[in-house]
Write a structure and sequence with these properties.
418 residues; alpha+beta; Butyryl-CoA Dehydrogenase, subunit A, domain 2; four-stranded mixed beta sheet; four-stranded antiparallel beta sheet; 12 helices; globular
Length: 418
């Protein structure tokens, strides 16, 4: 068994590092307020419901343009969309690599803007969309002229998406949708919202949910408020859907099979979240070790204190194990015909990596002491961002439940033997 990364991938990582030094670091240096202790304040338009400041989003857009011009941004997309067709395994390695470099314009945490784009929804439209949807949305989603938000969660339903209360009723060659959506991320700058609604079946059925691509200016679709969060700015909206009327052609994929689309989106995102969490955890561990070697107390370095050594050894060991798990999960996802076939591995990688980064950030704060608690250091920002990963894309309890379902034969490949 060979654990070495293929030369093409290591060459790409080197290409990323060179691009960051040449193009991104100078751009970042011109706007220090977004990356030092002022970052949360500078990035947020507090008078506009706490949404991202336009100047901050303009800077992110410039970073993306530079990365796209350099041929890096579309790495995960297929060649026909200008990409290199990177696998989930390759993307996991890249996401870990970028996050392990720490905070910066190259890989921002708040809205996951990166020099290597994470565009699972563009891939979904590419795979499941009609030709009209592809022509209208995909290139714009990549370049930023189109923004597509994801309306799955509801005020009373999150991980239990099959129990959603939003309904769509057929009316001739149109559908009329009614319901409420919560944590409708990205709506503040979206041109379209993908609204999931039950079109048939009963509560709890996986079949019978349909995804509709709804233009944001459609009558009845309204952003009612934004929820301020642990990590600001926010782009997490509450949206009302009142008698929203869309043509049958607005359906993304097949009628009643929208949950499959959601699963494709969630599985890829869960792996990439896990890889980012792993990279950020390793960054926190490495910085804490560096601090312990440099900081002297009572006449000797902190690194000689067993109380400092052992927690970091535990975290470092956990990071090595999680790295193997994340890469195996991505590898299996690349080979699966149906992503639900490998939910067990994806869920294990997701919940363990997301828990790890929170523990690593907390330990780094402790090792740095009062300085770690301050916003002079990035650890509080890393913790605040990654803490949400233990809830979003399926809470860690849901991930553990999925693993248990396979382990005990209630679902997945072992069900027939239960």
């Amino acid at each position: 068994m060979d654990f070495d990364l293929p030369p093409a991938l290591t060459d790409f990582l080197a290409e990323l590092d060179a691009f960051i030094e040449k193009e991104i670091k100078p751009l970042e240096a011109k706007h220090p307020q977004y990356f030092d202790h002022r970052r949360e304040w500078a990035r947020t338009n507090w008078e506009a419901d706490g949404t991202p400041a336009q100047e901050w989003e303009d800077l992110l857009a410039e970073m993306k343009r530079l990365a796209d011009r350099a041929g890096l941004f579309r790495y995960a997309l297929p060649e026909e969309l200008g990409g290199r067709g990177a696998s989930n395994l390759e993307m996991a390695v890249v996401r870990e690599h970028l996050a392990a470099k720490g905070l910066g314009l190259h890989n921002d945490l708040q809205n996951e803007s990166s020099i290597v784009a994470n565009l699972p929804f563009a891939m979904i439209v590419h795979e499941f969309g009609t030709q009209e949807q592809k022509d209208d949305l995909i290139e714009g989603m990549i370049t930023g002229t189109r923004g597509v938000a994801f309306a799955l969660t509801e005020p009373d339903h999150g991980s239990d998406a099959t129990w959603m209360e939003t309904r769509a009723v057929r009316d001739g060659d149109h559908w009329v949708i009614n319901g409420r959506k919560k944590w409708n991320s990205g709506v503040h700058s979206a041109t379209h919202d993908v609204v999931f609604a039950r079109t048939s079946g009963k509560d709890g059925d996986a079949r019978g949910i349909t995804a509709f691509v709804v233009p944001m200016d459609t009558p009845g679709l309204e952003v009612t408020s934004y929820d301020w969060t642990f990590n600001m700015p926010t782009d997490h909206a509450n949206v009302s859907v009142d008698d929203v009327r869309v043509p049958h052609s607005a359906i993304l994929g097949k009628e009643d099979e929208g949950l499959m689309i959601a699963q494709h989106f969630l599985h890829e995102n869960r792996i990439r979240q896990a890889a980012s969490s792993l990279g950020a955890a390793q960054y926190c561990i490495d910085r804490a070790v560096e601090r312990a070697r440099q900081r002297k107390t009572f006449g000797e370095p902190l690194s000689r204190k067993q109380a400092v050594q052992w927690p970091l050894v535990e975290l470092h060991t956990e990071a090595e194990m999680v790295r193997g798990l994340v890469r195996k999960a991505a590898w299996t996802l690349d080979r699966a015909g149906d992503p639900t076939e490998v939910s067990e591995y994806v869920s294990m990688a997701n919940y363990r990596a997301n828990r790890l980064v929170c523990e690593a950030a907390d330990r780094a704060i402790q090792v740095f002491g009062g300085e770690g608690y301050s916003r002079n250091q990035p650890f509080e920002h890393i913790y605040r961002h990654h803490r949400r990963y233990r809830i979003t894309e399926g809470a860690e309890e849901i991930q553990i439940r999925k693993v248990a379902g396979t382990l005990f034969g209630f679902m997945g490949s072992r069900k027939k033997n239960a």
